[in-house]
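Key result, reporting period 2: structure in, sequence out.
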């Protein structure tokens, strides 16, 4: 994570409630083909694991967060723990197994 990265994100900042156990935050853009597949993978994982939320953010409409979090491309996925702290980050389309592994590190 780059300089100026916050210690945690709030539900107000991401525009949705944080998951009770973890939150998968996806930065997407309108014409991003891998974003669609990423949405499906993250949605499936969030549906499989109790207390995990998936939140998709339109990068173009949230340039404030994009800059602050140094999001260089879409899709970018952040894994937040229950307190909203960023505990994982990946660029590009993730594999389901990698998302599950990242959640394992976020959820005690």
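The corresponding designed sequence is given below.
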């Amino acid at each position: 994570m780059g300089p100026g990265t916050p210690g945690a994100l709030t539900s107000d900042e991401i525009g949705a409630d944080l998951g009770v156990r973890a939150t998968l935050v996806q930065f997407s853009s309108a014409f991003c083909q891998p974003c669609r597949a990423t949405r499906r993978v993250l949605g499936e994982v969030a549906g499989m694991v109790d207390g995990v939320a998936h939140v998709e953010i339109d990068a173009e409409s949230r340039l404030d967060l994009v800059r602050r979090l140094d999001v260089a491309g879409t899709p970018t996925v952040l894994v937040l723990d229950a307190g909203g702290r960023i505990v994982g980050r990946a660029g590009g389309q993730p594999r389901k197994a990698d998302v599950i592994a990242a959640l394992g590190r976020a959820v005690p």
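Confidence is low (pLDDT under 50) at residues 1-5. Strands lie at 22-28, 52-58, 76-81, 86-91. This case is discussed further under Risks and Mitigation.
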